[in-house]
Amino acid sequence: MKKHGSFLAIVLVFLFPAFLVTSCKEKDSDIQASVQSALKDNPDMAGLSASVQDGVATLTGECKDESIKSSVETIVGKIKGVKQVVNNCTIAAPPPAPAPVVISADDALTKAVADATKDYPGVKTAVKDGVITLTGDIKKADLKKLMMTLNSLKPKKIDNQLVIK
Amino acid sequence: MSLQDKYKELLDAAKSLGVGNLQAREQNNVLYVDGEAPSGAVKDQLWDIYNKLDPDFRSADLVMNINVSTMVAGSKAVVTTQTSNLNIRKGPGTDQPIVGKAAHQETVTLVSKTNDQWWLIRTNAGAEGYASAQYLSPQN
Lengths: 165, 140
Prior knowledge:
The complex is a heterodimer of chains A (about 160) and B (about 140). By secondary structure, chain A is α/β, with parallel strands linked by helices. Chain A has helices at about 1-40, 65-75, 105-115, 140-150, and strands spanning about 50-55, 55-60, 60-65, 85, 90, 125-130, 130-140, 155-160, 165. The longest helix of chain A has about 40 residues, at about 1-40.
């Protein structure tokens, strides 16, 4: 009887903690799975990843902004089994603003416009504050080619008052 | 109606025709469209759409600067003067002395790009100098 009892004790001493450990591990992975599926369900959080250890969920990845970062923490904190949330999410840098449009200086533009229009004797030009003004006349067939060249000179705009023949 | 809407067909076409580095920026009621077309034909097509949306380019609300990506140093280009020969000059500028000529429709080699207006070119006969970019077109 006594032998039996000590055997049981050995079983309990050795197997029970093992059972505890495995059950705990399983639980973490279950929690991790539910955290991940919660993240996946929200398009703002789909890019984040989570790992869970001993009930502590660690979040990593890039959030679009601060409000998403705090709401993901709230959502994950409410998931069953999560004891604590370590929020290591970073905030994405805002997209760079487009560079301002570069407009040619009048001197360079005047010279380039003169070169561009020298084959079209009917075309008169004026350049002021980056605006090219076209007066006079041009053949319809030449208009597109001239405009292509003038558009590449980085003007502010082109005021086309040409009479088309 | 915003300019991006007015020229939506143009911008959509630029995207679908594979224009690289496409940028559309609106500033002081002018839309600036920049990009690199994969061929001269695509550039032409975009200009035809521009002409359709804004007949004869009258509205002064779009500046479209589309380069052709095959126009790079080392490649060939065709001399597209109206009829005359193309002047090859010592430096980039019409005030520079003429050092050679390239014939109308002749194929030349682009050596290097000085700026949007001038290319250093070489003819098959070996003449080298600067030519105005407006008379150099991509080979089809």
